[in-house]
């Protein structure tokens, strides 16, 4: 998975099995973590959890599945296909705090805002919490869905954990007692693929889905406030199912004034701005047209937008917001420094970029059962219709049996 994140003056990217952290303002050594050379799971004599379909015997590919950065930027965590959970510290220098093992492959990671725990959602629908204070402690099961979890986020006050799954459900649960459900946000028609509580608006939730829409919610009540069809914003007809594209990323600027939305395999980024009227609303502001499809995007602490592209010559773009518009800053020293540092890792990045859609298997498959039923019914009717010059075939053999019985019935005895 190719992903992008910002951590103070560091730009972080994951590509295949590697995580690379590059300092944007100083010529400092980059930090590279390669999962293929990471700590191996110790062999245990105790039976492993087999609820992953016997997956305990599987050999992982070491590909990074998700990573997260804490609110302060001092902590980072990643999880990979070999079911590692690796915790890092940034200060004074990048270092590994712990390597732990999870039960199933992870789909989403998030730190609590007090940075005492990191929460992990997995493909079976379970959510575990892992202690940061006790970095060797095993995870604790906190909640579960009946469907695959795809994304998760926490509210800024650590009051709620918000989880979203393949079956279009967004659940708002109390963090301290996840069995206590506050609300459901329902309305998407396909899997929910992205969540964001925007900065400066702790009562709001943005969600993106495989149905190509983004919705704004008051998550405590589950009330939908706004909805946008991103196909329409791109002047694409809804009926064209071949062009439907899942929302793969929703990112917000540190000020909360700007929202950037990326759709899978679409060479553009849709931007929204906060309308500060009597009743605050998000409105579409502009669309950035790109030469290649973006792999991921993120805002840095300065409010600049970084876009990771599927292009060796220009793997990154940097946009700044000035005088009411977004401008691509190709001459930025920071951008050139990061691209130069990223070039040696292009082979790994290209592996991630060349993968097929990570959402294609999540779409609902519809079957036209009625067409098959009508066809078979018509065939039966055709068989039952009397053909010209032919007698109608007996039904269930009843007529032939009756005729046979009449033929065998003895006549009256002759008188002597």
Describe the structure.
Pathway: tRNA modification; N(7)-methylguanine-tRNA biosynthesis. Residues 38-51 have a biased composition (Basic and acidic residues). Keywords: Nucleus, Repeat, tRNA processing, WD repeat. The protein is mainly β and 416 residues long. It is 12% helix and 40% strand. The protein contains five helices and 28 strands. It has helices spanning 230-233, 333-342, 346-353, 369-384, 398-408; strands at 3-7, 10-15, 18-23, 31-34, 64-69, 75-80, 84-89, 95-101, 106-111, 117-122, 126-131, 140-144, 149-154, 160-165, 170-174, 181-185, 192-196, 204-209, 213-218, 223-229, 247-252, 258-263, 268-275, 281-289, 294-299, 305-309, 316-322, 325-328. It has a four-stranded antiparallel sheet with strand order 1-2-3-4. It is globular and about 85 Å long. The termini are far apart. Mean pLDDT is 86; it is low at 45-57 and 396-400.
């Amino acid at each position: 998975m190719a992903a992008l994140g910002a951590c103070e003056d560091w730009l972080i990217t994951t590509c295949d099995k590697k995580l690379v952290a590059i300092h944007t303002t100083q010529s400092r050594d980059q930090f590279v973590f390669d999962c293929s050379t990471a700590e191996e799971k110790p062999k245990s004599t105790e039976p492993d959890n087999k609820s992953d379909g016997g997956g305990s015997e599987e050999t992982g590919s070491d590909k990074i599945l998700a990573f997260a950065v804490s609110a302060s930027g001092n902590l980072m965590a990643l999880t990979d296909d070999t079911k590692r959970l690796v915790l890092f510290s940034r200060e004074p220098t990048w270092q590994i705090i712990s390597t732990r093992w999870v039960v199933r492959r992870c789909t989403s990671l998030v730190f609590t805002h007090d940075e005492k725990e990191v929460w992990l959602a997995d493909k079976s629908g379970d959510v575990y919490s892992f202690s940061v204070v006790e970095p060797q402690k095993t995870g604790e099961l906190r909640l579960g869905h009946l469907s695959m979890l795809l994304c998760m986020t926490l509210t800024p006050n650590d009051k709620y954990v918000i989880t979203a799954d393949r079956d279009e459900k967004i659940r708002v649960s109390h963090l301290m007692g996840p069995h206590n459900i506050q609300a459901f946000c329902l309305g998407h028609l396909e899997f929910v693929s992205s969540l964001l509580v925007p900065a400066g608006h702790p009562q709001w939730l943005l969600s993106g889905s495989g149905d190509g829409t983004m919705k704004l919610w008051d998550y405590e009540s589950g009330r939908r406030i706004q909805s946008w069809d991103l196909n329409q914003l791109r002047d694409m007809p809804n009926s064209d199912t071949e062009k439907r594209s899942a929302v793969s990323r929703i990112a917000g600027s540190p000020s909360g004034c700007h929202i950037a939305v990326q759709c899978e395999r679409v060479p553009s980024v849709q931007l929204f701005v906060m309308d500060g009227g009597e009743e605050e609303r998000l409105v579409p502001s502009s669309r950035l047209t790109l030469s290649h499809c973006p792999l991921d995007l993120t805002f840095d602490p300065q409010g600049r937008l970084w876009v990771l592209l599927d292009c060796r010559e220009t793997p990154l773009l940097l946009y700044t917001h000035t005088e009411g518009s977004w401008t691509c800053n190709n001459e930025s020293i920071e951008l050139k420094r990061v691209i130069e540092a990223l070039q040696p890792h292009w082979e790994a990045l290209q592996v991630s970029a060349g993968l097929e859609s990570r959402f294609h298997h999540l779409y609902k498959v519809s079957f036209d059962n009625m067409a098959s039923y009508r066809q078979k019914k018509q065939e039966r009717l055709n068989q039952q219709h009397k053909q010209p010059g032919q007698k109608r075939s007996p039904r269930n053999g009843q007529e032939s049996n009756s005729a046979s019985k009449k033929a065998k019935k003895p006549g009256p005895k002759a008188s002597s």
